[in-house]
Design a protein that fits this description.
The structure holds two protein chains of two kinds.
Chain A lengths: L1 H43 L3 H28 L2 H30 L9 H22 L2
Chain B lengths: L1 E2 L1 H7 L4 H8 L3 H8 L7 H11 L3 H4 E2 L4
Antiparallel strand pairs in B: 1-2
Classes of the chains: A mainly alpha, B mainly alpha.
């Protein structure tokens, strides 16, 4: 088992490092979302240059977060990849069906407010988490 | 698909974590394999067979055959 344990320690360490890296980039992305959301109101007002820069920063950090997520998923074992794939598939379906329905509700004035992207993101996130939880329980 | 993973692991006095480490998978995956809730891919099945120095068909049994 000695050689195998050496291999496994490497894989476990890689998984740990990958999880930490993903958490750091996700946190960084959340921060870069907050900057253009609150910065203009609290600090620099409607400064086009600064607003463009912080939004560009947000997109840049977002791309790095996506790459970190792809690498993290590729490192997972096959069952975990299957669980992730199913959860993401359900989330994507909810995003398309829910998003279009939500947009149509707004367009036809069936809801008394404007369709906000934030609500859709929240629904997608909750769907993903619930799907992940159910799948993890299923294979437990 | 039935398999003898749990027996083979017990014969070697390995924990699920030991086996998971040897296969580079999570402990949950080993548990799902042992309980038959998940069938491994061909590469993982070969890896398991190599680990136990056995043929795949000596570990996994096709219930439909």
């Amino acid at each position: 088992m000695e050689t195998q344990n050496v291999q496994s320690t490497e894989w476990s360490k890689k998984m740990h490092d990958s999880t930490v890296r993903l958490a750091i980039w996700t946190f960084a992305w959340v921060i870069t979302v907050a900057i253009p959301a609150f910065g203009p109101t609290l600090f620099w007002g409607e400064n086009t240059l600064i607003n463009s820069m912080v939004i560009l920063l947000n997109v840049g950090v977002g791309i790095v977060m996506i790459v970190a997520n792809i690498r993290h998923i590729k490192l997972q074992d096959e069952l975990m990849q299957k669980i992730q794939l199913e959860a993401m598939g359900i989330s994507l379906g909810v995003a398309i069906v829910g998003g279009i329905a939500y947009s149509m509700l707004d367009a036809t004035n069936l809801i008394p407010f404007d369709a906000e992207i934030g609500l859709l993101v929240a629904i997608i996130s909750i769907t993903y988490l619930i799907s992940l939880f159910i799948n993890l329980r299923r294979y437990k | 698909m039935k398999n003898r993973l749990k027996v083979l692991r017990a014969e070697r006095d390995w924990t699920q974590a030991d086996l998971a480490n040897a296969l580079d998978v999570s402990r949950q995956t080993v548990n799902a394999l042992e309980t038959g809730k998940y069938d491994p891919s061909l590469p993982l099945a070969f890896k398991i067979a190599r680990l136990f120095s056995m043929q795949i068909e000596d570990i996994f049994e096709d219930e439909e055959a």
